[in-house]
Amino acid sequence: MRLLRSTLATAAALCALATGVVLAQPAQPAQASAADCEGGRNGFRDHPDNAEGDTVKPRSFDLGNVHFTLEKGAYVGQQIAFGKISGQTRPGDNVWMDWRATGWDHDGAVSPWLQCGPFTVRSAGQSLTTPFRRTSTDPQYQFRVCGSLISDGRVHCSDWW
């Protein structure tokens, strides 16, 4: 069965090339799991789901009555960022935060793009946050908030900050 799938995939790719259609995969993060940023992993820190940043939200978007915000705040004298979903959420809605840095990050590890999440809403109206990470004045050290609703499953992301 595996050989048949492989053969069909190869045939489909050859047909696409012969007709001039290019099949491309969108760029994917180096990691894409909630476990990769929980419990202090990869420079992230956990905090309560009802956490709020300061009044200035660097990035945000709404999908109907569901709000996605990139929050910023301070922890032990350092600026931090985290993603948040709030509003009229439904079980199955998701939020995550993407983080990227070109080259070496400030913790000494190479990690050009890490997706922190997704984290899934479990009850109607639940607010949910991602773990937070220290920010930087380096313009190549960036964050954005992303999410999807159970009602349509399409992924939406803010601009990078």
Architecture overview:
11% of the residues lie in helices and 38% in strands. By secondary structure, it is mainly beta. It has one domain: Immunoglobulin-like (Sandwich). The strands form 2 sheets. Strands 2, 3, 4, 5, 8 and 9 form a 6-stranded antiparallel beta sheet that branches. A hairpin with a 2-residue loop joins strand 3 (59-63) and strand 4. The longest helix has 17 residues, at 2-18. Mean pLDDT is 79; it is low at 1-31.
Outline:
This protein has one domain (29-157): Immunoglobulin-like, CATH 2.60.40. It is built from one helix and eleven strands, in the order αβββββββββββ.
Layout of helices and strands:
Blueprint (H helix, E strand, L loop, with lengths): L1 H17 L12 E3 L10 E2 L13 E5 L2 E10 L2 E10 L6 E8 L11 E8 L7 E2 L2 E3 L6 E8 L7 E2 L4
Parallel strand pairs: 1-7
Antiparallel strand pairs: 2-9, 3-4, 4-5, 5-8, 5-9, 6-7, 6-10, 10-11
Organism: Streptomyces phaeofaciens
Keywords: Signal
Protein name: Secreted protein
List key phrases describing it.
161 residues; mainly beta; Immunoglobulin-like; six-stranded antiparallel beta sheet; five-stranded mixed beta sheet; 1 helix; 11% helix; 38% strand; disordered N terminus
